Amino acid sequence: MTGKLLCFPLLAATLAIAAEPSAFTGTWEGRMNGLQAVQLVVRADGAGVAGSITFLFMQRQDERSAWKIGGKAESALIEPQIKDGKLLFEVRHAKKHGGTEMGPNVRFRVEARSPDELRLFRLDGSEKDGAGLPMVRCHLTSGCAAIQ
Question: What is residue 13's predicted lDDT score, i.e. its pLDDT?
Fold first, then answer.
């Protein structure tokens, strides 16, 4: 019975962390193929939250070649809001990488897993969002690589 009583305060504390804008504020890095793939910057403002996201495009010559960064796209977060303990936003999206013709906005959801870990999910309308991209908080001491 004691184990069940201890679980409730832990769950309540986790939900409280996820519901606060401070759970999302900061600079976050997601990595794929051993390289920085996404950088999310979230800041609190008078109306809630604001920020930007930068996606780095990965490419390689063939299956045996190492992955390299082949460009980047940065976008302001459109209509960011915290709803049900999750950060929701959209970004503008070009129809082709490097193109100027815009397609429909792309929607994302961010969930706080701990004070230093988020999961980024691209929402494509299906019920399966997958496991999400793990993102870690960048700290002044350990830092994250700056996007050039």
Answer: 42
